Amino acid sequence: MTGYIVRRILTSIPVIFVIAIMTFSITFIAPGDAAYAIAGEEATAEDIEYITELMGLDRPFLVQFGSWFGRVFKGDFGRSLFTGHNVTELLANRVEPTVSLTIMGLVLSILIGVPLGAVAGWKAHTWIDRMIMFFSVLGFSVPAFSLGFILILVFAVGLGWFPAIGYVSFLESVPGFFKSMTLPALSIAVGGAAIIARMTRSSMLEVLNEDYIRTARAKGLREKLILRRHALRAASLPVATVVGLLLAGLLTGVVVTETVFTIPGLGRLAALAVFRRDIPVLQAVVLVLGAVTVFANLVTDIVYAYLDPRVRF
Q1: Burial 50-72 (b: 16+ CB within 10 A, else e)
Q2: pLDDT tens digits, residue range 165-182?
Q3: DSSP 3-state assignment of 75?
Q4: What is the DSSP string of 277-300?
Q5: Measured between alpha carbons, how far is residue 197 from residues 119, 135, 152, 204, 275 in Å?
């Protein structure tokens, strides 16, 4: 197990390095002069000269990347071109809402998707199965931002149960935290729950046809006990992989969700950075989210190897 974990960690390092190269290349994607693209059409010659000197854009690409990566390795992402604040501090102030939203969305996806998928597999080819699969297709098809607007219209504007926008820290108020995060988390959880439900159903159908399940039924074990103790445990292996991939998807999906609900997280910070052409902030957010995605995949592989020892070999 230790050797497998070490190998997976070593293979993740080059991936992060490639992400760093692609992230730094954001500055050079726009055609023409990079400083002019960052400064905008209304920038003066002094503004362009200031940005060129500040970001070292007059130096060779490899020299710029080496200098930037060296600073990033030390935790220094530079300063915001728009506010002048330290980018590392900006990231630190925005981490809590994004982490909270991602964890709540993932937990809701699992709590909704796994039971629905298990019931659909148990009641396969019945009206219950068809209704659950209809929900899965619908939940997978509706974009998170569209669902977010619908939830705001129904539960915030219409019923007044939850706030439409904003974020309350867990440390400030626990009830306020859950009220402010329920609608955003639900908007990103529905799509994830649909994917988990479909995967759980497929895994359950495969497991329920195994010989040891028929043997358990022949021994007179209760159906619920068979489902919970034998079938669902064996069917959880493919679901674990989907949950890991879903976590990576939720991290990238928070950009739109945080913008819709005006949550001051990393996603909204990235959207503002794009609007303001604040390249240092955008590079930092993309690199952090990319590194977290690689880490999520790494944890998924380790958990999968723990659940199924055959993977290690």
Answers
A1: ebbeebebeeeeeebbeebbeeb
A2: 777 777 777 888 888 888
A3: coil
A4: T-HHHHHHHHHHHHHHHHHHHHHH
A5: 9, 9, 25, 10, 37
Domain ranges of the chain: 32-76, 89-312
Task: Quote the CA–CA distance of 296 and 247 in Å, as a whole number.
Answer: 7
Mark 161-178 as b/e (b = at least 16 C-beta within 10 Å).
ebbbeebbeeeeeeeebe
Global pTM value: 0.74
β-bridge mates for residue 79, sequence order: 86
The CATH classification of domain 89-312, taken from the options 1.10.357.10, 1.10.3720.10, 2.60.120.20, 3.40.50.300: 1.10.3720.10
* Mean per-residue pLDDT, 217-246: 69
What average pLDDT does the segment 220-249 reach? 69
pLDDT at 223 over 70: no
- What's the number of CA atoms in the CB half-sphere (13 Å) around residue 154? 8
Cα–Cα dist 201/123, whole Å? 10
Q: How far is CA 24 from CA 35, 69, 228, in A?
A: 14, 9, 48
Res 36 pLDDT > 60: no
Token pair for 227 = 């489902």
Task: Report the distance separating Cα 58 and Cα 49, nearest Å.
Answer: 10
Q: Which residue has the tokens 């197990």?
A: 1
Query: What's the number of CA atoms in the CB half-sphere (13 Å) around residue 210?
Result: 16
Distance CA 26, CA 246 (A): 26
